[in-house]
Write a structure and sequence with these properties.
- With about 725 residues, this protein is mainly beta.
- The chain has a single domain (about 1-40, about 145-715), classed as TonB-dependent receptor, beta-barrel domain (Maltoporin, Chain A, Beta Barrel), CATH 2.40.170.20.
- Helices cover about 5% and strands about 65% of the residues.
- It has five helices and 35 strands.
- The protein has helices spanning about 1-25, 65-70, 100-110, 580-585, 710-715, and strands at about 40-45, 50, 75, 80-85, 85-95, 95, 115-125, 135-140, 150-160, 165-175, 180-200, 205-230, 235-260, 265-290, 295-320, 325-350, 355-375, 385-405, 410-425, 430-450, 455-465, 475-480, 485, 495-505, 510-530, 540-565, 570-580, 595-605, 615-625, 630-635, 635-650, 655-660, 665-675, 675-685, 690-700.
- The strands form two sheets. It has a 22-stranded antiparallel beta barrel. Strands 1, 2, 3, 4, 5, 6, 7 and 8 form an eight-stranded mixed sheet that branches.
- A hairpin with a 4-residue loop joins strand 11 (about 180-200) and strand 12 (about 205-230).
- Residues about 1-35 and about 705-719 have low confidence and may be disordered.
């Protein structure tokens, strides 16, 4: 870590001195100076942190997924779960909720070229407008509406353990009242990583050590189209179409050795060969009424999302105490169907300066997950086939009221009500569940401006996180690492309360504190079941309900600074985390640490137009841990990324070189505690190496920020 920080410090100092010298030499020739004001790279607002990446060198050669990794307050674990300040998030794209989570969300965001990004908003205190799932990440794309045809083509080659290629094109046409945008991409990515697992069961001092080499290759084309027509100066209609496909092949080699009471029992080697094909199709038809003079906004969205994931998975296991190979085939075809209608309306209330916002959404989901097992590895405890069905209907309504009092006190109060009814069932096993519940989710925001230099804000949010449908599926499936996995039909949602305070100084320095409380949650856990001798008992991983109080405390300080006539932008954030798991561990018979304390933070540095030669530099460093529920980090990861981009204005071309984690490779190392034992997993990530990209632009590249004057964001404490 010292090497990384020292390198960036030296780089920054050298650039500063060099640029000062360069500017001083040319100062005699300057008769007039025009100051160009641009937004800081990172803006700290009351309810959100905004990462302004438009026209930044950080975009060159990256996808939206890559930039999301480098966003302040955001962390991504080895299972590709996105978190903000250590908590799970819901991802929106242009204020439209994504239907994907986990690895599916990663693959989808990897098809969106970063060149289209305007900004990424990390909304830690969302209003009632957003669906209740803790923090929200809103990815805002650029909007080009100057006349004529324009676009860009990007070619990228990335070298990690394996080589990967990525290409995309953007095409935009605007004529009077009509705007058409096409985005296409194709990637051929190979991802390789090493895993080391140690399973320590309390019974009989049973220990299994597993080493795994996993290689995953994806060939993924995608295409999206946005058509928008301006009926008049107040009314717009449009259609969004999205298509994504991925052909996947995975090969893994796992070697395990098993001891009980320090006596060797057996060993095994397991090979996995998986091929799969996924397809995603999304449609959205929207109507927008916007009266700029009266600041009235009506948004109506209706759409569908369909996702299909079909896999064929073959596992071959060679046990040391068996003369024959165990073979098993797993065929699955998961399908999700989502239909929704969403309405939002905002308007000011008279001359009082108050704003009222109201809206609602109807969501329908119809999902199916069939599995079929074959081979000689199947015993009586494994069901050979079944179809899991999940259906739900979520109806929600919300209202927000915002007003500023005494020109100093900004307020926002909101309430959201959600009602869900859902059905689960297995066709063959016959197990089923039918349930429904409603919940009120209030939120409050207060901001007091002592002066134009000092302000204090306070927010409160009630949230609820619901399980993903596959987490309910109880079908037992063998894994490539020798374990088994299944879902849990009895999963319960996780409600939580959050209190957030932020103090702003000189509009550059911010100190914040957060308190989060929950009395119930669901996390990954383990259990054991008897296996057919002479093999050891099955170790099964599944999501389990955990009762017990968890309290989290968080202190954070960050600053935004610009130097050298706004050419050098620096954002530094550093936080201290304290988690009280004492009640949680006692009630669930867990032997993990009752109290956890650790540090984390990130730094973003960007330099524009080095030596006035159209060279842009950027650097990013993050220090983070992986502590979640009953899982605890064994080491601290230091991520870093350095990139340099050369722009050729006459030919509208860019060349970018990016260095990823070249000083230290990330290693996700954590231990998960359960009532039956402790499970340590160490994953050496493949996110390191270098990347080279070429970008060719054509047409007028003038960019217009999304013109939607969202009152919820720009008033009542949303700033």
């Amino acid at each position: 870590m010292k090497i990384i920080i020292s390198t960036i410090a030296i780089l920054t100092a050298s650039l500063s001195l060099a640029q000062v010298k360069k500017d001083s030499v040319k100062q005699k020739d300057i008769e007039a100076v025009t100051l160009v004001v641009r937004k800081p790279t990172v803006e700290s607002k009351v309810d959100r942190t905004v990462f302004n990446v438009a026209n930044s060198s950080i975009l060159a050669g990256n996808t939206t997924w890559d930039v999301l990794r480098m966003t302040p307050l955001v962390s991504i674990d080895n299972n590709d779960v996105i978190k903000a300040e250590g908590e799970k998030v819901t991802v929106y794209i242009n204020d439209r909720k994504s239907v994907f989570t986990g690895k599916e969300l990663k693959e989808y965001l990897a098809t969106i070229p970063a060149d289209n990004l305007m900004k990424i908003e990390v909304i830690t205190s969302p209003s009632s407008r957003y669906e209740s799932a803790g923090s929200v990440i809103n990815i805002v794309l650029k909007k080009r509406d100057d006349e004529g045809m324009k676009g860009s083509v990007t070619l990228n080659n990335r070298q990690n353990r394996k080589n990967s290629q990525y290409t995309n094109f953007n095409l935009n046409y605007h004529k009077k009242k009509f705007t058409q945008t096409f985005i296409g991409s194709y990637s051929d990515n190979t991802w390789s990583q090493k895993n080391s697992n140690t399973q320590s069961l309390y019974k009989d001092n049973d220990v299994t050590s597993i080493n795994i080499i996993n290689t995953d290759r994806n060939k993924s084309p995608s295409l999206s189209s946005t058509s928008e027509y301006e009926l008049n100066d107040k009314n717009n209609v449009g259609v969004i179409l999205e298509y994504y496909q991925s052909k996947r092949s995975t090969f893994s080699d796992a070697e395990g050795i098993h001891y009980a009471n320090d006596v060797f029992k057996d060993s095994y080697n397991r090979n996995q060969d998986l091929t799969g094909l996924s397809r995603t199709l999304g449609t959205n038809v929207f109507y927008k009424y916007y009266d700029k003079e009266k600041n009235k906004i009506l948004d109506i969205n209706i759409g569908t999302n369909y996702d299909s994931q079909k896999d064929t998975n073959d596992l071959i296991t060679n046990y040391s105490n068996k003369s024959t190979l165990d073979q098993i085939g797993i065929n699955s075809h998961n399908q999700t169907r989502n239909y929704y209608l969403k309405v939002d309306y905002t308007q000011p209330l008279g001359k009082s300066g108050a704003t009222f916002e109201v809206g609602g959404k109807m969501d329908f989901n119809n999902n199916v997950a069939p599995y079929d097992l074959s081979g000689n590895m199947i015993d009586s405890s494994l069901r050979t086939n079944d179809n899991f069905h999940y259906q739900d209907n979520i109806n929600s309504v919300y209202a927000n009221y915002s007003k500023t009092f005494f020109k100093k006190l900004e307020t926002r109060i909101g309430i959201r009500y959600e009602y869900i009814s859902f059905k689960l069932r297995q066709d063959i096993a016959g197990t089923s569940r039918k349930d429904s519940y409603g919940t009120f989710l209030p939120n409050i925001l207060l901001k007091y401006n002592f002066s134009d230099k000092y302000d204090l804000s306070l927010t409160y949010n009630r949230n609820i996180w619901r399980p993903w449908y596959t987490e309910f599926n109880p079908f037992l499936i063998p894994n490539y690492d020798g374990f088994y996995s299944r879902g849990n039909m009895d999963l319960q949602p996780n409600p939580s309360d959050r209190l957030y305070m932020k103090f702003g100084i000189l509009k550059k320095y911010f100190i914040s504190a957060r308190y989060m409380y929950t009395n119930q949650d669901y996390w990954t856990t383990y259990t054991t079941e008897e296996n057919t001798p002479p093999q050891k008992d099955k170790t099964i991983t599944y999501p389990g309900n955990f009762s017990g109080r968890v309290q989290k405390y968080y202190l954070f300080a960050n600053t935004n600074q610009t130097f050298l006539k706004n050419k050098l932008s620096v954002n530094v954030g550093f936080g201290w985390y304290y988690i009280d798991n004492s009640d949680f561990n006692t009630k669930n018979d867990l032997k993990g640490a009752k109290y956890i304390s650790y540090w984390g933070g990130s730094t973003n540095i960007s330099y524009t137009n080095l030596f006035n030669k159209n060279i842009n530099l950027s650097a990013w460093v993050e220090v983070s841990n992986q502590n979640n529920g009953n899982s605890y980090a064994n080491n601290t990861n230091v991520f870093h990324n350095i990139s340099v981009t050369k722009i050729f204005p006459k030919t509208q071309m860019e060349v970018s070189l990016q260095l990823m984690n070249i000083f230290q490779r990330p290693n996700f190392d954590s231990t998960t505690f359960s009532p039956v034992g402790a499970f340590r997993n160490s994953t050496q990530s493949d996110w390191y190496g270098f990347s080279l990209s070429f970008v060719k632009r054509f047409g007028n590249q003038k960019v217009k920020t999304n013109t939607k004057t969202d009152v919820e964001k720009n008033g009542g404490g949303g700033k």
